[in-house]
Amino acid sequence: MTTNSNTKGTAMKLGVITLAIMNVAAVVSLRGLPAEAVYGLSSAFYYLFAAIVFLVPTALVAAELAAMFAQKEGGVFRWVGEAYGKRFGFLAIFLQWIESTIWYPTVLTFGAVSIAYIGLNTSEDALLASNKIFTLVTVLAIYWVATFISLKGLGWVGKVSKIGAMVGTIIPAGLLIIFGIIYISTGGHNNMDMSQGFFPDLTKFDNLVLASGIFLFYAGMEMMGIHVMDVKEPASKNYPKAIFIGAGITVVIFVLGTFALGLIIPAKDINLTQSLLVGFDGYLKYLHISWASPVIAIALMFGVLAGVLTWVAGPSKGIFTVGKAGYLPPFFQKTNKIGVQKNILFVQGGVVTILALLFVVMPSVQSFYQILSQLTVLLYLIMYLLMFSGAIVLRYKMKKANRPFAIGRKSNVGIWIIAGLGFCGALLAFVLSFIPPSQINVGSNTVWFAVLIIGCIVVVATPFIIYSLRKPSWKDPKAEIAPFHWEEQPVAPTTSATSTSPATPDAKK
Asked: What is the value of pTM for the model shown?
């Protein structure tokens, strides 16, 4: 992750509104709205809470770290590695990659449901959407098509993703909110349980599990930190302003979109994978334009496909770059003729296929969707815990480093408050994610805990095992990964070595 804005004085600079909209496009997804609609009015509390303790801290901390290492590639590998050493840097980039890999079946499940609802018979569409075989085949077909397209190069994917974000996310979100306003203002029956109030019953921990998934709704904002150096001056003021505007728009879309679903669908009938389409169908029937239902389904499907096509090769590119520096065996460094990391994509596809096959052991498509979503949340939150704490550590390890953007320059109080808030929020969500949700039948609690606990242990242990097995021959001579700050510093003389001396490379291995 680099930016050339420092070296190109004539490079185009991003305005506050432009960056704010980019933040919205990067974060907002409609597929998770049904998960929060079951909470009624209290869903707004969860959205606001997660935005304050996670979304904004993530964006600000990532901005400081991205600007600090603007001329050094690696992303979270660089940020965490500078703070905790190479092992944990590799763990961070590995988690970012594997999290996105596990995410594919969940988002493609939503894509399969969208395809099912292209028909004109709602009851038949619902039966097809709940059919495990149909969902499994559709998920695998779409994913492998996207993979083979990625192997042919991604030059045109950027344009597809932009169109997909507008057609499949922004426009449907706006329509859903408008439909909800028209529905309630013209006397439509309010199906939302208004007795819950804004503040939820926080004593019922099992009811908070679905809410913890909101943190994943906001995940990915760290990717926008790379643009901090491309913001119009003064970046120290314009970047935070764009972040808060983008966060505000994001929260409004999520809150009003969730309310719109709650108005048209009773909480007891909400289904995590189907309710977005069911909600649209309900509004379209109310407005006597049912003919538009397949159009909405196609638009949502296109949004999913465009997003997946963009992400299939994205995170894998990051771990591929790091792997070439000696962190992955040569097998994973193989590319095709146009330089696409083919073997990593095939391994990634194998993992997605295995996860998709869990359809046959889970009691329903919905339970499969939920348990994989929770595992995704857990893995991503581990990376965020490393990032937030690492930002604080670097304030002390790299006191004199240049920070073009900083969360408080005169003292470390600001970074402790912002990064500390993000760390505590992520830790809270991590703990809550282990509790089985009461609203969804996930089958045996034993299976639930086994998948989440064993999944986390295996995934976290894997990069450490790979790191311990690395060999000098793994490093590609052409790979260019800038050294960490503690590798650039001269080793202090033994006569003056103290416990406060800069760490040597050996100490960080």
From this structure: 0.80
